[in-house]
Design goal:
- Helices cover about 0% and strands about 45% of the residues.
- The chain has a single domain, classed as 6 Propeller (Neuraminidase).
- Strands 3-4-5-6 form a four-stranded antiparallel β-sheet, with no helix packed on it. A four-stranded antiparallel β-sheet has the order 7-8-9-10, with no helix packed on it. Strands 11-12-13-14 form a four-stranded antiparallel β-sheet, with no helix packed on it.
- Strand 3 and strand 4 form a beta hairpin.
- By secondary structure, it is mainly β.
């Protein structure tokens, strides 16, 4: 069968990439474990672990009843827990937490649908996209399911949030000015600040653990939403939006890097390159 997914790693210091594993199956959204030992990805509703060293194949993780997981998932800063977004229980995406080694998921979000996107540096809070009455907004919630906080209020579509490593900001993408761009909002709430002003549709900003760079995906301006199998660019910029550069272009989009994907040392990030479906 023809290749479909290529899991790869890019080093921002050497400006070189390497292939970790390739498959005819559709794999998405690699997270990198805090100890650097594995990547976590989703495929066909399930969660897998994969060595980042190119020396193995994915191993399925036990997620209990959660067998319709999407590409919004991540690993806690201490590596002990994982967050998943799954729709088996309610027919809509709900956020759950479970042991990193696998087990029974525990519900965190009662308001649905909710799509996980980031874990706070202290491990106590999630940030996510919640859709309420067809309005896409950014929220945070304690991992025990208490104290949901709404940070945006329907100013266009707001999606793809992730924490800065100092915990002060949540970066996200928003269409409030027309074209999807990168913004940030204080974690405690407040006015949003625009970060990119580009000719592309910018999605899924992921701040480096070093707090110096943000990697994100840019679509052609005429592409609506964040579909898969598109010609996209992976771009890098400073935390304030300065020094924006295109690292490389690829066939991808949805699934390329929807969730946090940096290595623990902040020198590399993981992503998925796709090949056209047969």
């Amino acid at each position: 069968m023809a290749l479909r997914s290529s899991v790869e790693i890019y080093n921002i210091r050497t400006r070189q990439s390497r292939v970790v594993w390739q498959t005819e199956a559709l794999f998405e959204a690699p997270n990198w474990s805090p100890d650097g030992d594995y990547l976590m990805l989703n495929a066909d509703g399930l969660i897998y672990r994969l060595s980042p060293h190119g020396d193995g194949k994915p191993e399925k993780l036990d997620t209990g009843f959660a067998t319709l997981c999407n590409n919004d998932h991540g690993i806690s800063p201490d590596g002990a827990l994982i967050a998943i977004s799954d729709k088996v229980e309610f027919g809509k995406s709900a956020i759950y937490v479970l042991e990193a080694e696998g087990g029974t998921p525990r519900l965190v979000t009662e308001n649905l649908p909710s799509y996980w996107h980031g874990w706070s540096p202290d491990g106590k809070t999630f940030t996510y996209c919640g859709i309420r009455d067809q309005v896409f907004d950014i929220y945070t919630i304690d991992i025990d399911g208490k104290s949901e906080l709404r940070l945006t209020f329907g100013e266009g579509r707001n999606d793809g949030p992730d924490f800065s490593p100092d915990g002060k900001w949540i970066y996200f993408n928003s269409s409030r000015t027309g074209l999807m761009q990168i913004w940030r909002v204080p974690t405690a709430g407040g006015a949003a600040e625009r970060i990119t002003d580009s000719i592309y549709g910018d999605w899924f900003p992921h701040p480096s653990p070093k707090g110096d760079k943000i990697v994100f995906v840019s679509y052609d301006a005429d592409v609506f939403d964040h579909p898969r199998d598109q010609h996209v660019r992976v771009r890098l910029m400073d935390m304030d939006g300065g020094n924006v550069e295109t690292l490389f272009e690829l066939f991808g989009g949805q699934g390329t890097m929807n969730s946090p994907n940096w290595s623990p040392d902040g020198d590399e990030f993981a992503y998925v390159r796709y090949f056209p479906a047969a």
